[in-house]
């Protein structure tokens, strides 16, 4: 890779910096599992990390402001009977998180405001459908209560969380272990990478293959793939000589890579994080002590090296903060939560600017927390574009979108019909639902073996 030619870019001087010691989360026993997931998920309210647990699986949830040494008695989310492999915050409700485990189940949890005060053992809903451990979770970016899971049974399931059931089951396409699965920006396509050395672009509701690429990387080590802008795909993998590579593909000409660059000879899997607002992709290697970042453009060589953040300690996992959770006044364009052996260390990516004014070129309108379509409508064929929000005045939380699972309808208040227009009043959380209360629908429900069904 050539790094000598200086090209014009406003992100050429992006630099990463770890926060001070008192702003880290210390004394946390991070999970020792060797599974290649992030082990960490963050949103503007909470940071969640998979931790060591005896007699099952657990993860810890902390309010962002609760830094310093974490007490050993800190409550955990501990409802799984096997180790937790992946966790993912819901993009439309900052209090709802999904977890996948070796016990073959997916569980949806609601975290109370302010964090946990006692261990959380009962999920809002339990989703059962996989026959082997569940290692990949991803919420739909625009449809409310739609969750994708992939397991070691080579099956991808799309869940209608509000009904507690598997709406789409893709079980014949993948012949081996699924390495990664992700949505595109509006949730109309799914991209998977598999141990059978194939990339597959899928229609999620039909469960059919739209495009397929064999051997995007020659090596036999895991391949990761993410969507980038303008119908392009970025992959990380290994060459035949076990050199780590990054490649960019155009879906219109899927057979040849637009660019393929070799990075180094390390053995850790590269986890890609793409920011569509700045067109920057961050590559975080498991076991590495560095974060590389590149700018994706329309001119060759398409993937331009920017710089690298390095530290002394290697990372066991990495969480990536959504754009709406960043500190706009400090020109922060990304924030990572780096997991060490016994702590979590935030790493801030900043563009140096002298002006104190809002930097419009760094912060275009970004994806907000409001969904554009409900689960039932999406499965019926309706698509929704992302609802964008401005970051100019800093992020101001809107009325919380409740997790409308059947089990919690009688305990979680719903907003009035004016809520979606932004002018509705919300019933306080501790106010019980009265039988004659007309502000929200109530439904009878029963929970059988963790799945919800209408009665």
TrEMBL record:
Among the GO biological process terms of this entry, one is:
actin filament organization
Which species is listed as the source? Electrophorus electricus
Give the Polar residues compositional bias ranges.
431-441
Region of interest (Disordered), ranges: 417-444
One Pfam family, please name it: DUF1899
Q: Where is the DUF1899 domain?
A: 4-68
Q: Which GO terms describe its molecular function?
A: actin filament binding
Q: Which PROSITE patterns match?
A: WD_REPEATS_1, WD_REPEATS_2, WD_REPEATS_REGION
SUPFAM superfamilies listed in its UniProt record: WD40 repeat-like
Tell me what gene encodes this.
Answer: CORO1A
Instruction: Recite the UniProt keywords alphabetically.
Output: Coiled coil, Repeat, WD repeat
Q: Which family does it belong to?
A: Belongs to the WD repeat coronin family.
Provide the protein name. Answer: Coronin
Spell out the residue ranges that the record assigns to WD repeats.
Answer: 77-119, 127-169
